[in-house]
Amino acid sequence: MPFARIALVAFLIPTGVAAAGLTGTFEHKEDGYEQGVTVKAAGGGYTGNFSTATNRGCGGEVKMKGRATGPSTIVFSKADDGQVCRITARYAAGFRTVDLDEDGCTMWHGASCEFQGTLKRTGR
After folding, report:
1. Which of 11, 27, 62, 84 fits a 20 to 30 Å CA distance from 102?
2. Residue of 93, 85, 88 lying closest to 121 (CA atoms)
3. What number of other Cβ atoms are within 10 A of residue 19's Cβ?
């Protein structure tokens, strides 16, 4: 039984090519709406710098720590003034795009923007 646990842990911790694919810069620009994230490896985990803005005046940014929860997923989180922002980053095959799904992040970007959607890789 201990072998099964070790195998599961090894599967959940990205290594080599997968870990390298999780880092980089990703963006989405469309109809006056811009989103971006830069993910870097940091101390056994990751940091993510998220930004969002529109030409209609809303916008925001947040830097947070994250941890891999699988070979192609990182969960980022940050707490401030009793608010907890969580962003789940799920990478597509080949790590060319990342799907962001946020929860509780309004304090960092306002009601008209979001850290959510599909972003394309623009840099390593």
Report:
1. 11
2. 93
3. 14
